[in-house]
Amino acid sequence: MSKICVIGTGYVGLVTGTCFADLGNEVHCLDIDHQRIEKLKQGIMPIYEPGLEQLVSQNVKAGRLIFTTNYEEALESAEFAFIAVGTPSGVDGEADLQYVRAAAEKIADLVDHPIIVVNKSTVPVGTGDWVADIIRKRRAGKPLDFDVVSNPEFLREGSAINDFMYPDRIVLGSVNREAASKVAQLYLSLRCPIMITDLRTAEMIKYASNAFLATKISFINEMANICEELGADVRQVAQGMGMDKRIGHAFLDAGLGWGGSCFPKDVKALAHMAVLHGTSPQLLQAVMDINRNQRRRVVLRLRKALGSLDEKVIGVLGLSFKPNTDDIREAPALEVIHLLQVEGAIVKAYDPQAMEAARTMLPKVHLCSNPYEVADGADALVLATEWNEFKQLDFERIAGLMRNKLIMDGRNLWDPERLRQYGFTYYGIGRPSLNGSDQSGCP
Ligand SMILES: NC(=O)C1=CN([C@@H]2O[C@H](COP(=O)(O)OP(=O)(O)OC[C@H]3O[C@@H](n4cnc5c(N)ncnc54)[C@H](O)[C@@H]3O)[C@@H](O)[C@H]2O)C=CC1
Ligand SMILES: O=C(O)[C@H]1O[C@H](OP(=O)(O)OP(=O)(O)OC[C@H]2O[C@@H](n3ccc(=O)[nH]c3=O)[C@H](O)[C@@H]2O)[C@H](O)[C@@H](O)[C@@H]1O
């Protein structure tokens, strides 16, 4: 059993801390946000993540998981200090490291025993060395015995606990292999491959992984757009491609594109790093452009179908950036809504979990309490997030409620044939449209 301090109780900090506690360690989860810690102490989760509340409660009861705002208490005799604070986009797309710096400074100021500082936040290549420098400089008069290890996190929101407990790999980077091996011990019971490398390589693995996944999605979205013009079905194209083991099925779902708190900021930060160091990240630029365009295409198609969007009522189903989370940071729905509103549309929306976040982020959207209220009087319905709840809607009822039976299925969730039977005009992403593309041309 080790004593671990986790700095930051966002998605990553909270899941990391809870899972390490569940693996038998004593974990002190620390945040500067007093309200957040107060709620956590009362068992109220600051995020919606399946299974988290129960796992937190079990480990708090077992005395292995402690929430605090007190740095001294959390760091006292800790063998490991995990930095899991946010690294949001700065003005030029660079990662803003102010929270990482603040955490590093606290460690330098308060620790007097040997400690391993583990960086779990996604940080630019070179940040591990920078953190070590900050600590060394602040402790110039009274050197601290410490090491910095990079340990990027690969969990996904919505399946975070499972991803943490059953990882494909653990990546550890350090100048000191012994320090990396000590961190590796924390993960041994997970029985997964552990790769130990140098600091910068570990940091780069994280960015390259996220950028590759985003590239896969933008690639299939580009294929979808071509499919639409040529009358092919991108879902089957993806299926056929994915059967090739070298390609694989994952991350080939065409749709409104990738959003969330990580892909957008990480692809931007990687491109920024590349430009800063004199390379020209053309592929990354294209990946971002295609993603932005996916949202615009939907609005364009609605405008074409409805003539103009001015004063049209558009219903949006799903606001979170993907199902099983209440996170709406950089959600595709937000951009679609913004574009619709710019063209004068009146937007109604519903999400199974993200309504609280939506109330503050989307003040001009008429928020509804269920999908049928969204459909009532709508000129078109846009599916932005493929929540399970939306799979089996009563389309007969929806057809009766809408002013105009137009459906834009931004996640290819529904069966076009079934919807057409209810009299809907259906548009998917990269699927042959009965009403849309001209398929008469020669190959
Ligand atoms: N959200 C996700 O699914 C994943 C995120 N990551 C990376 O992990 C890092 C954290 O991401 P999230 O958990 O989403 O962040 P978040 O922004 O949701 O939460 C960060 C937390 O850190 C706290 N904090 C900020 N400065 C602090 C300080 N000096 N001391 C103590 N607490 C402090 C904030 O109050 C906040 O509660 C980011 O670098 C992100 O890119 C990596 C993998 C998955
Ligand atoms: O660094 C991070 O924060 C995390 O970012 C992503 O995880 P996450 O953002 O939680 O969600 P994903 O499941 O990757 O989905 C991201 C976006 O891509 C979209 N997506 C995903 C898959 C797909 O086939 N098509 C598609 O449009 C989703 O709708 C969503 O908007 C990565 O998958 C994690 O490995 C990583 O740890």
Automatic annotation (TrEMBL):
Any Gene Ontology biological process: UDP-glucuronate biosynthetic process
Catalytic activity, as annotated: UDP-alpha-D-glucose + 2 NAD(+) + H2O = UDP-alpha-D-glucuronate + 2 NADH + 3 H(+)
Ranges where the UDP-glucose/GDP-mannose dehydrogenase C-terminal domain occurs: 315-416
Chain positions recorded as NAD(+) binding sites: 31, 36, 87, 122, 157, 265, 329
Positions of substrate binding: 154-157, 206, 251-255, 259, 322
Top-level taxon of origin: Bacteria
EC code: 1.1.1.22
Keywords for this protein: NAD, Oxidoreductase
Keyword Oxidoreductase annotated: yes
Keyword NAD: yes
Molecular-function GO terms, alphabetical: NAD binding; UDP-glucose 6-dehydrogenase activity
Pathway(s): Nucleotide-sugar biosynthesis; UDP-alpha-D-glucuronate biosynthesis; UDP-alpha-D-glucuronate from UDP-alpha-D-glucose: step 1/1
InterPro entries membership: 6-PGluconate_DH-like_C_sf, NAD(P)-bd_dom_sf, UDP-Glc/GDP-Man, UDP-Glc/GDP-Man_DH_C, UDP-Glc/GDP-Man_DH_C_sf, UDP-Glc/GDP-Man_DH_dimer, UDP-Glc/GDP-Man_DH_N, UDPglc_DH_bac
Active-site residues (renumbered): 262
Homology family: Belongs to the UDP-glucose/GDP-mannose dehydrogenase family.
Protein name per Swiss-Prot or TrEMBL: UDP-glucose 6-dehydrogenase
